[in-house]
C-alpha cells in the first residue's frame, strides 16, 4: 500500500510538472506570437432561418504555434487575459475582422454582419471605443456591419462605469450581443438597463433540446423575453436537424453550429459565401 501510495504521489507531481511546463511554454510563446503573426481568425457562419442563407459570422481566433498545430482559444485566451496580451490581441482581431468584412461586403456578401468576442478586460479598457471608431474609419467598414459579443458576467460590474461604454459603442452604430446567455446571473432589469441588440442562447441549452424539458422551457422563455424587449435571438451550438427544427418552430431567427458549418479559415468561408449556398 505504501509502495503504491508513493507511486501515486510521484505520478501526481510528474503530472503537475508536465502541466506547469506546458503552461510555461504557452506563456513564453504567446508573448511572441503576435509579432510573429501566428494568430489566425476563423469564421463560423450564422444562418438566417427566414432565407436559409448566411447573414453573418462569428470571428474566432486560433493560434498556429510552429510545431504545435492549431491551438484553440480556450487554451490561450485565459492566459492572454492574465498576462495582459488580450488588449493587443483583441485589437489585432478587431482590425483583421473589419478589413475582412469590408472586402466581403464589396465582393461577396453586401449585408454580412460579423461579430467579435470581447473579453471583459477589453471592455474595461477606456480606449476600446476610440480604437473601434478609428478602425472603422480606417477600413471604411460601416459600423452596422460589426457586432460585439460580450458575456453576461460583464454586466455584474459597476453600472456607472459600464453604461457610458455601452452608450458610446451604440452611438458609433455598432451592435452588441449578449453571449452564452442563460449561464450567468443577469436579470430582466439588467437586460433593460443595457442597450443590448441580440441574445445568444448558450449551447448548453441547445445541446439538450428537445429531450430535456428544462432546456426547452428555458429556450422558449429566452426567445419570448428577447422578443418582448425588442432584441433578436441567435442560437449557438446547433448540431442536428432536430434542434434546428425545434428552434425554427420556437421562432428563433438566427442559428449557428456544426450542423451548418464548423468555424472555417478565410478561404473556405469565402467558398460558402461564393456559392451563397443554402446550408
Ligand atoms: P464562444 O464565444 O462561446 O464561441 C463559440 C464556441 O463554440 C467556439 O469555440 C465554436 O467553435 C464552438 N462551436 C460552434 N458551434 C458549435 C457546435 O455546434 N457544437 C459545439 N460543441 N461547439 C460549437 P472556440 O472557437 O474554441 O472558442 C472558444 C471560446 O474562446 C469562445 O467561446 C470565446 O469565448 C473565446 N474566443 C474565441 N475567439 C476569441 C477572440 O477573438 N477574443 C476573445 N476575447 N475570446 C475569444
Ligand atoms: Ca461568442
Ligand atoms: Ca457563446
Ligand atoms: Ca463561451
From TrEMBL:
Boundaries of every EAL domain copy: 23-277
Protein name, entry field: EAL domain-containing protein
Lineage, highest ranks first: Bacteria, Pseudomonadati, Pseudomonadota, Betaproteobacteria, Burkholderiales
Residues of the whole record sequence present: 613 to 891 of 891
Amino acid at each position: 500500500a505504501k509502495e503504491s501510495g508513493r507511486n501515486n504521489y510521484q505520478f501526481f507531481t510528474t503530472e503537475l510538472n508536465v502541466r506547469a511546463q506546458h503552461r510555461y511554454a504557452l506563456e513564453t510563446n504567446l508573448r511572441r506570437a503576435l509579432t510573429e503573426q501566428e494568430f489566425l481568425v476563423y469564421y463560423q457562419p450564422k444562418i438566417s432561418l427566414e432565407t436559409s442563407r448566411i447573414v453573418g459570422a462569428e470571428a474566432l481566433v486560433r493560434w498556429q504555434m510552429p510545431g504545435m498545430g492549431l491551438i484553440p482559444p480556450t487554451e490561450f485566451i485565459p492566459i492572454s487575459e492574465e498576462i495582459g496580451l488580450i488588449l493587443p490581441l483583441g485589437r489585432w482581431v478587431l482590425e483583421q475582422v473589419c478589413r475582412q468584412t469590408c472586402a466581403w461586403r464589396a465582393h461577396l456578401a453586401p449585408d454580412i454582419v460579423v461579430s467579435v468576442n470581447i473579453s471583459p478586460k477589453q471592455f474595461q479598457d477606456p480606449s476600446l471605443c476610440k480604437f473601434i471608431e478609428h478602425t472603422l474609419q480606417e477600413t471604411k467598414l460601416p459600423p452596422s456591419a460589426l457586432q460585439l459579443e460580450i458575456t453576461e458576467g460583464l454586466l455584474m460590474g459597476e453600472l456607472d462605469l459600464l453604461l457610458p461604454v455601452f452608450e458610446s459603442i451604440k452611438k458609433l452604430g455598432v451592435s452588441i450581443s449578449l453571449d452564452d446567455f442563460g449561464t450567468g446571473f443577469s436579470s430582466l432589469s439588467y437586460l433593460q438597463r443595457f442597450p443590448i441588440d441580440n441574445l445568444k442562447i448558450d449551447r448548453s441549452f441547445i445541446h439538450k433540446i428537445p429531450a430535456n424539458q428544462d432546456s426547452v422551457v428555458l429556450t422558449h422563455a429566452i426567445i419570448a423575453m428577447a422578443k418582448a424587449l425588442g432584441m433578436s435571438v441567435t442560437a449557438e451550438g446547433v448540431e442536428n436537424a432536430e434542434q434546428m427544427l425545434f428552434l425554427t418552430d420556437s421562432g428563433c431567427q438566427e442559428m449557428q453550429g456544426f450542423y451548418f458549418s464548423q468555424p472555417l479559415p478565410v478561404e473556405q468561408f469565402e467558398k460558402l459565401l461564393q456559392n451563397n449556398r443554402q446550408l
